[in-house]
Amino acid sequence: MKKIEAIIKPFKLEDVKDALTEAGITGMTVSDVKGYGRQQGHSELYRGAEYVVDFLPKIKLELIVDERSVDETIRIITDAARTGKIGDGKIFVTSVQKVVRIRTGEEDEEAI
Amino acid sequence: MDLTEVNYVIDTFFTLFAMTLIIFMVPGFAMLEAGLVRTKNVSTVLMVNTMIYAVASLGFLLIGYSIAFGDFGSDSMSAWAAFLFQMAFVGKVVNIMSGGVSERARVLPLALFTVIMGSVLYPIIVNWTWGANMLEGTMLELSMYDLAGSTVIHSTGGWALLAAILIIGSRKGRYPKEGGVRVIPASNVPLVTLGAFLLWIGWFGFNGGSVGSIASKESADAVALTIMNTNTAGLAGAIVVGLLMYVQYRKLDITMILNGALGGLVAITAGPDLYTIYQPIIIGAIGGALVVFAVPLFDKLRIDDPVGALSVHLVNGIWGTLAVGIFASNGDNITLLGQLKGVIVVGVFAFVVSFVILFIINKLFALRAANDEEMQGLDVEECGLEAYPEFKRAF
User: Which pLDDT tens digit goes with each residue over B19-43?
Assistant: First the structure.
């Protein structure tokens, strides 16, 4: 099992979610996060003075999938979240040792 | 009831209604300031707005009104309505003053100054301009025309604020040692908008009520003209600031546009009953433009005014008073020179006396919050209650 963490632009969340659901991948956790990558934030204007917003609002999406679905999931997220402009985000994949569904006690693949 | 009594009742009702509109400016100031400061100081800003309205108004009831007018009395309407209308103004003077020292002033010393301002300092200025006139026959006697207080209220509050800012200093980190200005953006723009429009609506009572009577055809016309001109100046201020911001920065900064509208409203306040329906467009437009130039100018001078009160109320209070001399001078009792004299006499008195009183209060009680209190936010120290606790606590 793998955990896929994707940092995406907030307004792309609906597209990504719909694309994943369509492909039969259900269940995900999202959180509001802030951060920056190579683009280093951007500047805004307040009362005639410019200021730099270092940390831009992003959405972090986490989902656990079995090994076979990893590549497909990454492809779906990449396609749905891409705008082509700087700041589209990143995807991280890590291994997951164990998953337990709290309600039933099911483990691993059955619990995903 | 004979006609005199009917007029008495109508004027009393009109004045009470105008007073109610003016009191709407208390939440107006409170919301505007709460939106422009950081979330960690919002409870304190709201509490200050409430408390100083209360203590200054009560000070005006017990002491100030008698200093200003000699006694409680009015022939044309209920004496209590006449008093309440004047009392509603006091809260504005002190609210103007308190906004610009937000995020770093401690409440109790500020409230102490407010008591003095509401019960003595401001009433003396009213005495010279609208009241018993103790300067009559002296060299300093004022002939300034100031219908609803561009000078008496707005720049008086502004001068006191300038004195306070000079004593208390800027917010920590606002002007870094290496130079430049660190921007501290507004925390809640919708609240700023709500506050600005509450002030705008309150202004109709502020200026309209200052005409003093509505119970005849002539005075009803004067009230309607006054309110229309008041509104026009606000519209012109907003539009001009929008244009200027767009031309200069390609951005329509809403907080500046709202400040521009308020600047236009302050500028019109000295003589909204004197102008034609077109003049307020120019007066309000210049008022708005002054805000756009004054905000960065005060920053350049390292005078930290989080809400723009100096640009809106002080600068435009002066401009509005002079505007009467420019647009409505009749060469007889209204002259540009007379207006200028009023601006200077009231300005010097308000600034010097405020500075001295604040200087003494500062020596005795420390006007400014300690560094770590300021970093943490005044809400914890002064109120014990944060306006937005959910950011840290789930339940």
Answer: 999 999 999 999 999 999 999 999 9
Chain B residue numbers with beta carbons less than 8 Å from the beta carbon of A49 are 181, 183, 296, 299
CA distance A43 to chain B (A): 11
User: Who's near B264: CB < 8 A, 6+ residues apart?
Assistant: B233, B234, B235, B236, B237, B238, B240, B283, B284, B285, B287, B288, B316
Rounded to the nearest angstrom, the gap between the alpha carbon of residue B225 and the centroid of all alpha carbons in its chain is 22
- The DSSP 8-state label assigned to residue B88 in this structure reads H
Residue whose token pair is 């269940």: A27
Test B295 with A47 for CB contact under 8 angstroms: yes
Q: Compute the distance between CA of residue B313 and CA of residue B317 in angstroms, rounded to an integer.
A: 5
Nearest C-alpha of chain A: how many angstroms from B23?
28
DSSP B103-172: TTB-HHHHHHHHHHIIIIIHHHHHHHHTSS-TTTTSTT------SS-IIIIIIHHHHHHHHHHHHH-PPT
Length in residues, chain B: 395
Contact residues, chain A, for B253 at CB < 8 Å: 45-48
Fold of A2-110: Alpha-Beta Plaits (3.30.70)
Q: Which domains does chain B have, with CATH numbers?
A: 3-383 (1.10.3430.10)
Nearest by CB to B255, from A44, A47, A51: name it: A47
The shortest C-alpha distance from A55 to chain B (Å) reads 14
Q: Do A51 and B249 lie within an 8 Å CB cutoff? A: no
Q: Which residue of B has its CA nearest to A47?
A: B256
Tokens 């009241």 locate to B131
Could you list the pLDDT tens digit for every one of the 112 residues in chain A?
A: 999 999 999 999 999 999 999 998 888 999 999 988 887 777 888 888 888 888 888 999 999 998 888 999 999 999 999 999 888 999 999 999 999 999 999 998 888 8
Helix, strand or coil, per DSSP, at residue A33: strand
**Which residue from A minimizes the CA distance to B297?**
A48
Q: Which run of H or E residues covers position A61?
A: strand A56-65
B chain contacts of residue A31, beta-carbon cutoff 8 Å: none
Classify B70 in phi/psi space as left (phi over 0), alpha (psi -120 to 50) or beta: left
ipTM over 0.90: no
